[in-house]
């Protein structure tokens, strides 16, 4: 039996949430998790796992939907009561990780595979995917249906609205494989959590498209429209997929709306990423600065997982974005106009200027399902 050894990701508490950081040859990773209310955060911890010999990994985030999932609660083994949204986000995270581990177990032929996650297991302990041999999205969806089914739903009378869902959560994940001078990326998502590519030439470019009727990213910031597709236990859902090749080096970013949903325009999420990177000495400090930054502007739980791929070290990563950071600061200063009318015009102009690059890698508009 081949053992899959699991390499731990260093963690720390910067005083504004929890952070994780990781470094290996050609790969650096940062995770940030903050709660709006202490002990009540419904985002799951961000996901990062990396197979060292195979040079492949996954980053992901999961936002439990406290609105549609707040009506019914679960009691954990220690007696703690948690919302269905809290449980759903964590179950889906575990399902995505087990799906990734099963794929690793099926393709590993030698000992020594390492994963940068928190618990060790052998491949014999990982369940075979019910849809083995199926398309990745079908296998993943099957796995998520299985893990969500482990928690029985409450009596229907306790779900007080048709809008209530059992164990609802969003997901955004990016599975990558490194090869030569490029990374093959399979982006998987449901709901309004997002995945991005960040490069010095292209800046921050969205790799997902929110599952909402409103398709304009600026209007999504302003309106916070309802989602048309989320992962849950009691309704059908779809896992969307976007496959593409990205030149190395680049950074893959997954984030919940606590990070990008409370900025002035989509450009300003990139501003936050780059300003904190420019001021940091290493990946740990970058994570700490991101945690403090998002805690200062968000009105929600916030989680982020990113992987910097193909860089020799943090100094090279920081230097590669120095010019882009200065350009973003000059073009899109983090200053809000005082008057609402001026603010709307400024937002529209900023978005019109930033939008072409931001949307260049987005998948085509399509209804889920």
Write structural notes for this entry.
The protein has 369 residues and is α+β, with helices and mostly antiparallel strands. The chain has nine helices and 17 strands. The protein has a single domain (10-358), classed as PPM-type phosphatase domain (Phosphatase 2c, domain 1). Strand 13 and strand 14 form a beta hairpin. Helix 5 (266-279) crosses helix 8 (322-331). Mean pLDDT is 85; it is low at 1-9 and 109-133.
| Euclidean distance between termini CA atoms | 39 Å
Give the count of structural domains.
1
- At CATH level 2, the architecture is 4-Layer Sandwich
The third-level CATH topology is Phosphatase 2c, domain 1
What keywords describe this structure?
single chain; 369 residues; Phosphatase 2c, domain 1; 7-stranded antiparallel beta sheet; 17 strands; disordered N terminus; Serine/threonine protein phosphatase PrpC; PPM-type-like_dom_sf
Topology readout:
Layout (H helix, E strand, L loop, with lengths): L2 E4 L3 E3 L5 E7 L2 E8 L12 E5 L4 E6 L11 E3 L5 E3 H24 L6 E2 L5 E2 L13 H14 L21 E9 L2 E9 L3 E6 L3 E4 L10 H7 L16 E8 L2 E6 L1 H4 L5 H14 L3 H15 L4 E8 L4 H7 L1 H10 L8 H19 L11
Organism: Nonomuraea fuscirosea
InterPro entries: PPM-type-like_dom_sf
Protein name: Serine/threonine protein phosphatase PrpC
Give a brief outline of the structure.
With 369 residues, this protein is an alpha+beta fold. The chain has a single domain (10-358), classed as 4-Layer Sandwich (Phosphatase 2c, domain 1), CATH 3.60.40.
């Amino acid at each position: 039996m081949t053992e899959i050894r699991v390499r731990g990701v260093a963690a720390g508490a910067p005083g504004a949430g929890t952070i994780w950081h990781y470094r290996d040859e050609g790969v650096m990773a940062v995770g940030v998790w903050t709660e709006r209310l202490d002990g009540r955060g419904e985002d799951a911890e961000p996901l990062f796992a990396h197979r060292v010999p195979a040079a492949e990994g996954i980053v992901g985030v999961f936002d439990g939907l406290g609105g549609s999932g707040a009506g019914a609660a679960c009691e954990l083994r220690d007696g703690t009561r948690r919302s269905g949204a809290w449980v759903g986000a964590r179950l889906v995270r575990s399902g995505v990780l087990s799906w990734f581990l099963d794929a690793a177990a099926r393709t590993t032929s030698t000992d020594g595979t390492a994963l940068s996650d928190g618990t060790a297991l052998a491949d014999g302990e990982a369940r075979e995917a019910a849809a083995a041999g199926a398309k990745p999205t079908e296998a993943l969806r099957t796995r998520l249906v299985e893990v969500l089914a482990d928690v029985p739903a409450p009596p229907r009378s306790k779900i007080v609205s048709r809008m209530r869902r059992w164990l609802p959560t969003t997901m955004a994940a990016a599975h990558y494989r490194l090869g030569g001078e490029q990374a093959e990326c399979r982006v998987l998502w449901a709901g309004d959590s997002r995945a991005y590519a960040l490069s010095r030439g292209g800046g921050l470019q969205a790799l997902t498209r929110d599952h909402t009727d409103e398709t304009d990213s600026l209007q999504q910031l302003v309106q916070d429209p309802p989602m048309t597709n989320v992962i849950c236990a009691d309704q059908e859902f779809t896992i969307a997929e976007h496959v593409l090749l990205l030149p190395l080096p680049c950074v893959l970013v997954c984030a919940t709306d606590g990070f990008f949903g409370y900025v002035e325009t989509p450009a300003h999420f990139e501003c936050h990423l780059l300003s904190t990177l420019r001021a940091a000495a290493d990946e740990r400090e970058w994570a700490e600065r991101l945690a403090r930054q998002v805690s200062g502007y968000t009105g929600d739980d916030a989680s982020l997982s990113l992987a910097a791929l193909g860089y020799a070290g943090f100094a090279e990563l920081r230097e590669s974005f120095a010019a882009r950071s200065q350009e973003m600061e000059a073009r899109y200063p983090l200053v809000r106009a005082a008057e609402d009318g001026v603010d709307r015009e400024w937002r529209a102009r900023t978005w019109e200027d930033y939008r072409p690059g931001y949307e260049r890698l987005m998948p085509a508009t399509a209804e889920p399902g």
